[in-house]
Amino acid sequence: MNCSDAIxxxxxxxxxxxxxxxxxxxxxxxxxxxxxxxYGDGYSVCDNCGKPxxxxxxxxxxxxxxxxxxxxxxxxxxxxxxxxxxxxxxAVTHSLVSKNEPVLLTEYSHYTEFLAxxxxxxxxxxxxxxxxxxxxxxAVAERIEExxxxxKRPPSLLFVEQVDYQYGNIHPVREIAAVAHQYDVPVLxxxxxxxxxxxxxxxxxxxxxxIGSGHKSMAAPAPSGVLATSSEWTEKIFRTTSxxxxxxxRSFGLKEVEMLGCTLMGATAVGMMASFPHVRERVNRxxxxxxxxxxxxDALLSIxxxxxxxxxxxxxxxTRMNTNNSFDxxxxxxxxxxxxxxxxxxxxxxxxxxxxxxxxxxMNTYGVSDRQASYLARSFQEIAxxxxxxxx
Amino acid sequence: MSxxxxxxxxxxxxxxxxxxxxxxxxxxxxxxxxxxxxxxxxEVSKILxxxxxxxxxxxEEMLS
Lengths: 392, 64
What we know:
heterodimer; A: alpha/beta; Aspartate Aminotransferase, domain 1; Aspartate Aminotransferase, domain 2; B: mainly alpha; 2 helices; 83% helix; elongated
């Protein structure tokens, strides 16, 4: 079945349990799907836009209220919709970091954090994780000291992930932020895998900037995200234009420079807004989702030779598995080689693991039901047994 | 088809699309085998009844 001549209909989430690490939290709610049907046209949210002609002030649909609700939900003072977390990173680096100024990132920083530093010609310095794959406050303090010794100034900004994309581990952001603030280093928390998935309060974490991803963790269409700030930074990040054309003398009202005016003008904004009541409620059920993740991981660990590379028991639904001594042993002898695993999973109605991966691979069980978690657990064990691995 | 009748038609189209979306959500909730429990079957039955009403409206408005 096709959407159009050249575009095949996408039925992945209707036909499979989808474990794709980056897709699980962005799967739309039914309300978001309806909103996308209704607001798919280009500037669809602009029907009732009036002065000051800004997305965050539109009353119908209720985007102004949505912005206020988002700030409150995140425990921050102001929030703006952005076209993906990465655009939030760039708004902050562009406002805070000048050429050749040091910026602290971590071993688990997303590549777009680096690119946001590169765009403003900053100098990246990385904090490495400990043996548990956790970024520690002590490591941050040591690295800040090194930067000060080398650069004769503290970093202009610290990026830290609340939950990293490689292991799905939860990092001690509150303690890290406290350390950074001792050196007057502002802290940007990347909540791409936490905001919309688990309860997150920027104030409790003590961070200056909290960024979430709509399409990764807030059941929203791509590209969407949220940039939230504490009151200390609101004016700087969301500063309004002061430029004037030299010939026409045109100026541009209250448009925000870093947002390049309006950001999400259609299905992305309304889709995100339609999911928000569900997102606000689902974060309170995160413990249940973690229990399901542990059920699946425990089943995998019952397969001989299988290890979990992420912290365990799991505290998040994104998990990195090490099956070098189980599924990869099978792959070495199997006629489908490394593709045997995804092939067997698909036969069971499961997808989302990178095809060909049998050594180190990631999955995200976010959003599954108890029944689906049990099904996943049984399926992995059945595939192991069918391929000669013992299951304890 | 004109005026208020047209609005009724448009609403029926969207209502139908939204009801189909509710069915789509049930498929997502029950993947991969789509085995429905009793509550889900009741829900599907309600949705299909509502869909029939919307189709009837469209037949009346667009074909009569």
